[in-house]
Amino acid sequence: TFLVGNLEIRERRLFNLDVPESRRCFVKVRAYRSERFLPSEQIQGVVISVINLEPRTGFLSNPRAWGRFDSVITGPNGACVPAFCDDQSPDAYSAYVLASLAGEELQAVESSPKFNPNAIGVPQPYLNKLNYRRTDHEDPRVKKTAFQISMAKPRPNSAEESNGPIYAFENLRACEEAPPSAA
């Protein structure tokens, strides 16, 4: 899957209600003024868009395509964007995450040639499960303004997965209140 050109989302769409609540999550996203990622440098008013892809081949659902999208504007503590996820197969769903401020696309944290879990904000081994890849991961000519992750729903009894960036649908409050020190 690849994107050509710019994508501008101009309207909200209802998401597919035949997806059970157990496969709905929130993704916590923060935007920062610099690569120091200091809590005091978080930016409000950034439009965070998540484009969910339908499940991968072999997963019991629709054919692979864009499944849904949603956008949320960051507040003082980032944004929690709804998305589909799965706890049985971590790579069943994936999503592209994009951010823009006043019409300008913001750059995502790099995933290649160096991979920094601290900059991405997710500790190992959960980061491996998310399979974080900036859009230029395999081709440096591609824009650096989005990243793709596997939507691995956190396991309830897993301490390393309980601090985000993906939260179960019923844990919206935990997502909204997560401090910058959380994943």
From TrEMBL:
Q: Which domain of life is it from?
A: Eukaryota
Q: Which Pfam families match?
A: CILP_8th
Q: Indicate the segments forming the Cartilage intermediate layer protein 1/2 beta-sandwich domain, all copies.
A: 24-182
One cellular component term from this protein's GO annotations in UniProt: extracellular space
State the name under which the record lists this protein: Cartilage intermediate layer protein
Q: What InterPro entries is this protein classified in?
A: CILP-1/2_8th, CILP1/CILP2
